[in-house]
């Protein structure tokens, strides 16, 4: 049992010390107490203890009892093959997104690429144009990084006048996090000997949309990765098999899937995704363009819309935070609508440009409550309130929504999304 002294709030609304759950001997007191002999009788064995189990399989699958943990897909009826699959953040824990639940954004379907026929071309302002097949790339020294990928249009429902009422993954779930393994792009660019006046890379995919996008050369030489593996296995087709460009911390559209070409040049290509899209009018009349970095964001995933608190008492608030600028150094949670804040426990290790899981204990008294979280990264950037974001960016926003997310808990334990 938690001692009464452990349950002294550190902030309004019943938030408790973040280290409470780290204490030894703490009992959550939600399990049903039974006599030991209740599980010892052969007569009481459940069906799966009375017959052999299923045969071996070549590739493991989730339990059929978890079939509801799936991506929510949304296609464009006017353009077959164009659409989105959202990661169900509300059903996941930890920081790694299972490969099969990583969000997807497609412009013309998922190509089924034969790796034996796939090649990567590096050309343009280089002294030596190079072509690599997959077998050649597999011979290069590899590195791994844990990195989130977030679509620049993630959370865009936050710009609406009314708060959307849906599961948190279905409007913030165009963000996922994986372990990516592959060849540092810097190694291949150095081998091609980039010329001095080069400033940009034009990266192009091998899908039927032949999508291309401009990336500053400085970033390419810093931490970009030519990923071949995701979470220990070869990247799946919908996430770029056999080769994906990973641009840590920057807009998802730059993480080009099915990568086939890198054109080294001295100017951006001014493609559709950097002119008609990803460019926004500001209140000043000027426009934002080439807004690569995904700013700091956090959100509570549990409890969130769709969850129900069935009793008063001790709960764990859990959520995710990330920043394209580097490491998250602090996440604060409020249970009184932002009047007071308490620091949450960050799951170790804290990694740069990676999802960060935060948790904090909370004693709910059954009253109407307003939950919020805000993250701070190592540059000192603080996640803004929604009003502040709109004052800065105006009403023409669609991309890069990173305002604080608010959940209202009703006395009945229902959770709704509110602007507050």
What's the short story on this structure?
The chain is mainly beta.
Molecular structure report:
With 420 residues, the protein is mainly β. The protein is built from five helices and 24 strands. It has helices at 134-137, 169-172, 185-192, 217-222, 386-393, and strands at 72-75, 83-86, 104-106, 119-124, 130-133, 143-150, 175-184, 200-205, 212-216, 225-230, 233-234, 244-246, 259-265, 280-281, 287-288, 297-302, 313-322, 328-334, 342-343, 345-346, 356-364, 369-377, 406-409, 415-418. Strands 5-4-13-8-9 form a five-stranded mixed sheet. Strands 6, 7, 10, 11 and 12 form a five-stranded antiparallel sheet that branches. A hairpin with a 7-residue loop joins strand 1 and strand 2 (83-86). The chain is globular, with a radius of gyration of 24 Å. The protein starts with 71 loop residues before the first strand and ends with a strand.
- The helix/strand order is EEEEEHEHEHEEHEEEEEEEEEEEEEHEE
Structural class: mainly beta
Q: For the largest beta sheet, what order do the strands appear in spatially?
A: 5-4-13-8-9
Computed CA radius of gyration, to the nearest angstrom: 24 Å
> What is the number of E strands?
24
Strand content: 25-35%
N/C terminus separation: 35 Å
Uncertain parts: none
Query: Largest sheet at a glance?
Result: 5 strands, mixed
Shape: globular
The residue-averaged pLDDT reads 93
Number of helices: 5
Helix content estimate: under 10%
């Amino acid at each position: 049992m938690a001692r009464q002294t452990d349950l002294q709030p550190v902030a309004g609304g019943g938030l408790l010390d973040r280290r409470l759950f780290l204490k030894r001997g703490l009992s959550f007191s939600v399990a049903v107490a039974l006599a030991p002999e209740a599980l010892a009788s052969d007569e009481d064995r459940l069906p799966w203890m009375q017959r052999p189990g299923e045969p071996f399989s070549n590739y493991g699958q989730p339990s059929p009892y978890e079939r509801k943990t799936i991506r929510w897909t949304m296609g464009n009826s006017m353009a077959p093959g164009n659409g989105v699959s959202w990661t169900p953040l509300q059903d996941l824990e930890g920081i790694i997104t299972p490969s099969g639940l990583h969000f997807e954004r497609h412009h013309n379907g998922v190509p089924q690429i034969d790796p034996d026929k796939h090649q990567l071309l590096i050309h343009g302002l280089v002294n030596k144009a190079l072509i690599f097949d997959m077998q050649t790339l597999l011979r290069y020294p590899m590195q791994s990084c844990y990195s989130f990928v977030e679509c620049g249009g993630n959370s865009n429902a936050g710009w609406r006048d009314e708060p959307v009422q849906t599961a948190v993954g279905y409007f913030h779930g165009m963000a996922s996090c994986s372990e990516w393994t592959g060849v540092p792009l810097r190694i291949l660019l150095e081998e091609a000997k980039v010329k001095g006046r080069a400033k940009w890379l034009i990266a192009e995919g091998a899908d039927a949309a032949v999508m291309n996008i401009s990336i500053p050369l400085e970033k390419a030489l810093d931490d970009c990765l030519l990923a071949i593996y995701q979470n220990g296995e070869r990247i799946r087709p919908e996430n770029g098999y056999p080769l994906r460009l990973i641009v840590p911390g920057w807009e998802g559209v730059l993480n080009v899937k099915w990568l086939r070409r890198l054109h080294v040049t001295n100017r951006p290509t001014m493609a559709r995704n950097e002119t008609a899209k990803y460019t926004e009018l500001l209140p000043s009349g000027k426009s934002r363009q080439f807004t690569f970095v995904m700013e700091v964001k956090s959100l509570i995933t549990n409890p969130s819309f769709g969850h129900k608190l069935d009793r008063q008492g001790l709960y764990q608030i859990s959520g995710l935070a990330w920043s394209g600028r580097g490491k998250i150094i602090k996440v604060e949670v409020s249970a009184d609508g932002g009047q007071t804040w308490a620091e949450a426990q960050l799951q170790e290790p804290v990694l740069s440009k990676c999802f960060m899981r935060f948790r904090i204990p909370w004693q709910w008294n059954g009253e109407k409550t307003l939950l919020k979280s805000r993250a701070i990264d190592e540059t000192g950037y603080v996640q803004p309130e929604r009003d502040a974001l709109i004052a800065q960016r105006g009403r023409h926003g669609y991309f890069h929504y990173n305002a604080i997310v608010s959940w209202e808990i009703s006395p009945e334990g229902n959770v709704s999304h509110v602007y507050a």
